[in-house]
Design brief:
Number of domains: 1
Oligomer: single chain
Helix content: 25-40%
Strand content: 15-25%
Number of strands: 7
Length: 150
């Protein structure tokens, strides 16, 4: 049986807000804030999940031309080594591959446009098309979201 090919999509700015990859004060001591991506890598390498799924790509939508994204990523940057912190250890591997080698940036630059503008709508379509092309490039699994009644 072939493995289902996964793509992990995230916003670095959300991981930065969670202080992923940093040691934070916790109950009188320090605690490392592991990112969900790092946790997934550990599950794929250390549990039977890795027998069924392969992580093919990691996509971030952050926009280096957005002042807001730059502010939110202060201390991290957009690439490993650019800032004081990063979201996972630089040497992290998953299923025998370096995590950094799986990363793809697909900036959601449409977010710079006003909410009701036609440029934002067109930009979002363009962004979605670029994501779809990247998913096809890595031959990611096409699945459906689970339906939850109610």
């Amino acid at each position: 049986m072939s493995k289902m090919r996964l793509v992990y999509m995230w916003s670095l700015r959300n991981a930065a807000a969670d202080r992923a990859g940093q040691h934070v004060a916790y109950k009188g001591g320090q605690r490392y804030m592991k990112s969900p991506l790092q946790y997934l890598a550990e599950l794929l390498d250390g549990t039977p999940l890795g027998e069924r799924y392969s992580l093919e790509a990691v996509v971030s939508d952050d926009d280096p031309d957005s002042g807001r994204d730059c502010d939110r990523l202060a201390g991290y940057g957009f690439t490993c080594g650019e800032g004081e912190h990063w979201f996972f250890p630089p040497q992290l591997t998953v299923q025998g591959r370096r995590m950094e080698g799986l990363r793809h940036a697909v900036p959601s630059s449409y977010r710079r446009q006003p909410l009701a503008s036609a440029e934002r709508v067109a930009g979002k379509r363009d962004y979605e098309q670029r994501v779809l092309e990247m998913l096809r490039e890595v031959k990611a699994a096409a699945g459906r979201a689970a339906h939850h009644p109610g």
